[in-house]
Amino acid sequence: MALRNQRIWLYINEVARIGSVRQAAERLNVTPSALLRRIQDVEHDLGAPIFERHSSGVRLTAAGEVLIRWIRSQSAELRRVYSEIEELAGLQRGEIRLACSQAVARGFVLRQVAAFRKKHPNVRFKITVTDHSTAMRQLTAFEIDLVLIFRPLRHPELHPIMSIGQGLVAIMNANHPLAAKEVVRLRECAEYETAMPESSFGGREIIESRLAASSAKLSIGVESNSFDLLGDLVAVSDLIAFQIDIGADLWRNDPRYAVRRISDLDRTYGPMVLGQLKGRPLPLAAAKFAEQMARELHDCRSLPTLGDFYPDDEDKVSYDDQVAPPP
How many angstroms separate the CA atoms of 327 and 97, rounded? Predict the structure, then answer.
């Protein structure tokens, strides 16, 4: 197929991402009619339509889905080529695209980005804070380079760079009755109202699975997709929230809160996984950043004290400490 202009791939990707020719044209600073003509040129070369209209815009056809995956893979490969060229003169610039769990965004990831940019100030970051399912979708669509997510499902295209065990902790007001204990049980927490994230979050999945066969049931007073909101509510009430160990530092350092470890008997552990797309070489900047995060993650593991403890979630990535070789 004759390639009329590499820019058209950017145009098609933007239309596919937004789902509207008009809105994509506005973002690309071209007229809708000019954009539509460029799309029609590609459809003519392919011999098949790549978009179909619906009530609220356009969506990809089957042929379009094949094409958009090729476009995104080529874009990712081109970024790697640019990165190798830049490596000849040292790491002067580049872009790192990361999707991460809320639990690590304001603490671990913030510190890692600041440290990396101090050494490489011209490297740009694009960070998406999201749940593990969305992060994996973005990774396989070539929209990001790296994921740092808690308790991802096993996926044939996920290559774990490093995986560490993380236990849950209970977060409560410093004056909460359970704050007098150093270690709490889930059944004790269930005696109070809780502030819980949405059901798609890994921490909630663990708690609900552990209590499924128990007579103790959670009483959810507030549910939200924002850990920050849940934490603020805990500070002014008797609600109990939960967080993985690596994400609790902000609350540990705030005198308004008490952060208490959940007993190993409750088996509230899961893997925090730093990963990339299997079979895809990372651009230089992303590879260097992944190396830095892997070194720091090694000291953040939170493993149970019970020697024979292993999680029973067979569909989840193992949390045994590991540093994987390149894919």
Answer: 18
pLDDT band at 324 (very low <50, low <70, confident <90, very high): low
Q: What is the pLDDT of residues 42-58, one digit of tens each?
A: 888 888 899 988 888 88
Q: In this structure, are residues 198 and 223 in contact, taking their beta carbons and an 8 Å threshold?
A: yes
Question: How much is the pLDDT for 22?
Answer: 87
Q: Which two tokens stand for residue 188?
A: 């004790």
In angstroms, the CA 299 to CA 301 distance is: 6
Span 121-135, pLDDT tens digits: 989 999 999 988 899
- Confidence category of residue 320, pLDDT binned at 50, 70, 90: very low
Strand 269-277 to 146-150 pairing = antiparallel
**304 contacts 269 by C-beta, under 8 angstroms:** yes
Contact 253, 247 (CB under 8 A): no
DSSP state letters, 92-143: --EEEEEEE-HHHIIIIIHHHHHHHHHH-TTEEEEEEE--HHHHHHHHHTTS
CATH class in words for 5-73: mainly alpha
Angle, helices 62-87 vs 32-46, to 10°: value is: 100
- Cβ atoms of residues 247 and 151 within 8 Å: no
Gyration radius from the chain CA atoms: 23
The pLDDT of 274-282, averaged and rounded, is 91
18-39 residue pLDDT tens: 899 888 888 888 888 888 888 8
Retrieve residue 135's tokens: 């992060």
For 173-213, give the DSSP string.
ETTSGGGG-SEE-HHHHTTSEEEEE-TTSHHHHHHHHHHTT
Encoding tokens for residue 298?
């090694």
CATH of 166-269, one of 3.40.190.290, 3.20.20.150, 3.40.47.10, 3.40.50.1000: 3.40.190.290
Indicate the CATH number for domain 75-164+271-303.
3.40.190.10
